[in-house]
Design a protein that fits this description.
The protein is of the alpha/beta class. It is built from eleven helices and 14 strands. Strands 4-1-9-10-11 form a five-stranded parallel β-sheet, sandwiched between helices. A four-stranded mixed β-sheet has the order 3-2-7-8. A three-stranded antiparallel β-sheet has the order 12-13-14, with helices on both faces. The protein binds alpha-D-ribofuranose.
Length: 298
């Protein structure tokens, strides 16, 4: 199986469960508070590893009490943490999350994720490039994202770019990715003049995969729009569903599945992930995905 390198953020999620999301300037009471590992990079690495992927995570934690717990969690999920740096005098990344109304809102305090610089990547470059598939998101500095994508491209790696959270990124950077995987909101921000979804997919010629929540995912293959419907879910917490989609998509490609099948597997896993609390709590194993959707090894 191909190896996956995830270059991205590692956070401790402080997740409050509430009856509803608060309005601007409003204070509400939560029903519970949980401290659970998260961060888009870590979540995608764990999602791929739960499916049996061979995954290494590249990123930074601080030297606070959260750092040990975050690394321990990755190791328990069989993610290679050898290249993760502990940065002295810095806090680990934190995400303050409110979950309510089958949705969430998130405020991220990046902390050590800011230390995932091009210079750090240079130090871990040989380990990064020992992988076949690179996957990136936007919770580390954007110059590092661009640099990693260029390294991957020059070395002939498959580069998956999940442009989340939404940020303005140049076409020059986007062109370095083999797959770009925004949700609908991120896609509209990246391509404000692209028109409707089929027009956007056609314009990007097979490199664009747009996730659409409970509507599933859409891509472009052989001159046609490919619509992959979502598996209906009993939603508890949608946090990390997009990360599950991306990590599992990378893992399915690493296992050798073709695009449409990889998207079906990723969709099924993303749906399952919403049925348990926490970003990583509901991420399924391969056995669970096959039990739900009957996929077989390629
Ligand atoms: O995508 C979900 C993730 O976004 C959470 O785990 C949180 O850490 C934020 O980074």
């Amino acid at each position: 199986m191909k190896k996956i390198a995830v270059i991205g953020s590692i956070n401790m999620d402080l997740t409050a469960q509430a009856e509803r999301l608060p309005g601007k300037g409003e204070t509400i009471s939560a029903k519970s508070l949980q401290y659970v590992p998260g961060g888009k990079g870590a979540n995608q690495a764990v999602a791929a590893a739960r499916l049996g992927g061979d995954v290494a995570l590249f990123g930074c934690v601080g030297d606070d009490a959260f750092a040990d717990r975050l690394i321990e969690n990755l190791e328990q999920n069989s993610v290679d943490t050898a290249s993760i740096r502990r940065v002295a005098g810095v806090s680990s990344g934190i995400a303050m999350i409110t979950v309510a109304e089958q949705d969430n809102c998130i405020v991220v305090v990046p902390g050590a994720n800011h230390c995932v610089t091009p210079a750090y990547l240079d130090e871990v470059k040989s380990a990064v490039l020992s992988a076949d598939i690179l996957i990136l998101q936007n919770e580390i500095p954007l110059d590092t994202v661009a640099y990693a994508m260029e390294l991957g491209r020059q070395a002939g790696k498959l580069v998956i770019y999940n442009p989340a959270p939404a940020a303005p990124v140049s076409e020059e950077v986007l062109e370095k990715a083999d797959y770009i995987t925004p949700n609908e909101h991120e896609a509209a921000l990246l391509f404000p003049d692209a028109g409707d979804l089929p027009a956007l997919l056609e314009r990007c010629g097979g490199r664009m995969i747009v996730t659409q929540g409970e509507k599933g995912a859409a891509a472009w293959e052989n001159g046609e729009m490919l619509c992959i419907p979502a598996r209906p879910a009993r939603v508890v917490d949608t946090t990390g569903a997009g990360d599950t989609f991306n990590g599992v998509f990378a893992c399915a490609l690493a296992k050798g599945y073709p695009l449409a099948k990889a998207l079906q597997i990723a969709n099924t896993a993303a749906s399952l992930s919403t049925e348990q609390p926490g970003a990583q709590g509901g991420m399924p194993t391969w056995a669970r995905v096959t039990e739900c959707a009957g996929f077989e090894e390629p």
